[in-house]
Write the structure tokens for this entry.
Amino acid sequence: MLDHVRYYIANFYVMLGIAGLLLGGHWVWLGSLGVLVAVLIGDMILGEDTNIRNLKYPWIADLALYLHVPLTIVLYGVFAWRLQIGFGSLPNLSELVLYGGSILSVALLSAFPNLPILHELMHRRHWFPRALNSIGGTFFGDPNSDIAHIHVHHVHVGTPKDSDTPYRGETVYHFVFRATWGRYKEGFKIERERLRRKGHSIWHWSSRILWAVLMLATVIGYFYWMAGLTGLVVVIITLFIAKLTIEAFNYTQHYGLIRIEGKPFESRHTWEHDTFFVRAGAVEITTHSDHHKDPYMPFYELKPSDAPKMPSIVLCFLASLIPSFWFKKIVIPRIKYWDQHLASPEERIMASKANRRAGWPDFAQENMEKYSV
């Protein structure tokens, strides 16, 4: 039964955020520091989790996905209420700290576990989960994130055509803006072309661009109605930080990996983060290889593979904020192994060029020279 209910931990994270906002004071940090610390410590204690799930009643696990979007709406509703009643009578330092805690908690929960759950819903074949994905995506400022994800990322992953694949030497601070712009631009272009083929403009009633604008306007307008100009400014900042946080988590999934355009996806083309709390809270998306091989495979059927491994994605997220530590301690040792042991001959040639552009040693060439002696 544990395999069925473990995914409700994602709902629990959101409820922690709601509770923190309701309690007020320094409890508003519960949804950010509380969740990050709990997941990080939990994964450090339990370590690697490569178990295969066995669900006799998949609908029990699925229910957690469908509960999530209403909970996220409640989270934002309570956030608006908290802004309406305020944090104090004067804009002193303590009040600013509480504003910051509230914004970071809501923004983080809009990324984790929000994005992994919406990611699962966007890959479902039925219109209802896909509609929930769009509604949920409003809370990180991108109701149409699935368009670029499905039509670009899954086709071009690991190649320069994929804005979600970080190149070697790229810091998270550069990537989050490049990936954000790339996803918006690709989604707009694809949707505009779909409508053009039907003889419609982007403002036709069936346009997802139009509906995205309306949903975002509804959320922002609600905060303005509840908390005036303060609410409007705060929710825009929150959505912006949430979007950047999402891309910062994405940063760790394919960092520096290389695939030849047109070649089949293999397990070596993604990193996996196989730790207990991350796998549960992110509804298995960190067992990433299986998902790219079959995007329609339900999350509870995804299995850890022989893909190269990263530590807990929460640890990677935090480490990436300090680029020198991220490169030296986490990325470069794993990239070196990938170049020397996992890359195909064609990929090794591209890896050598990528390493030179990044100012890194030519790991792939070192390996070739060793075998030529």
